[in-house]
Amino acid sequence: MKIERLLQSQGFGTRRECRAMLRAGLVEIDGQTVDDPFAEVDAQGLNFVVDGEHWQYRERACLMLHKPLGYECSRDSRHHRSVFELLPPQLAGRGVQPVGRLDVDTTGLLLLSDDGTFIHAWSSGKRRIPKRYEVVTRHPVDDAMVATLLDGVLLRDERAPLRAAACERRSECALEMVVTEGKYHQVRRMVAAAGNRVEALHRSAIGGLELPADLPVGEWRWLGDADLQQLQNYTATPMPIE
């Protein structure tokens, strides 16, 4: 692959911008400056440096973000900050999109990718992918409320009741809940229908992938092979609540 095309594919700008970057001597491979835009390189696993920053070629971008409170999953957010502000501009440049969404008042695990197949696979409600949430409620949680969420509640504009795939009380005003449908504001609406109100909501797992304990709030990282394997390690039955 020509080096100018490789840089373009990784989100460093238009071909003209990448060509100018190369001719300005801002790109290095194996410690050597590459200033010929038409130089051929083996893209697979290639490590390169752009303006002092190290990068690795990735045919597709798949990553996770520990979403903070107060950020929207939108590029054109008008009233709140955007999660894209937390990512390098190169990722936005290559068209990375959220895989599903978390609303502005929800924190936790958010996947992003520029791979349409990956996005569809992990945001499709038909696959019934379990997603685990930690919920803080305004009022105390009792056994009756947990039973109601497991039995199912009928939400407005829904034809059939929605049931929590798993639900367990954690403290007086906290529970963990697994859902598989991915409806709009589903957890908040289900808790409201069960007679309570969500005060704080955090997504801790998608599929078999847990939000890593060592990923700080507001930080991101690439999904490695082990992460992708964990992500796929689930069934339509609920993931265990530990």
Could you walk me through the main structural features you see in this protein, from its secondary elements to its overall organization?
The chain has about 240 residues and is an alpha+beta fold. Helix content is about 20%, strand content about 25%. It has helices at about 5-10, 15-25, 90-95, 115-125, 145-150, 185-195, 225-230, and strands at about 25-30, 30-35, 45-50, 55, 60-65, 70, 80, 95-100, 105-115, 130-135, 165-170, 175-180, 200-205, 210, 220. Strands 5, 8, 9, 10, 11, 12, 13, 14 and 15 form a nine-stranded mixed sheet that branches. β8 (about 95-100) and β9 form a beta hairpin. α1 packs across α2 (about 15-25). The longest helix is centred in the first third of the chain and has 9 residues, at about 15-25.
Structural class: alpha+beta
Rg from C-alpha positions?
21 Å
Order of helices and strands: HHEEEEEEEHEEHEHEEHEEEH
| Total of DSSP H or I helical runs spanning 4+ residues | 7
Poorly predicted parts: none
Strand content: 25-35%
DSSP E strands, number: 15
| Overall body shape | elongated
How far the N terminus sits from the C terminus, by CA atoms, comes to 48 Å
| Residues in helix, % | 10-25%
Mean pLDDT: 94
| Biggest sheet overview | 9 strands, mixed
Q: Which descriptors apply to this entry?
A:
alpha+beta, 15 strands, single chain, 242 residues
Could you write a compact summary of the structure shown?
This protein has 242 residues and is of the alpha+beta class. The protein has seven helices and 15 strands. The chain is elongated.
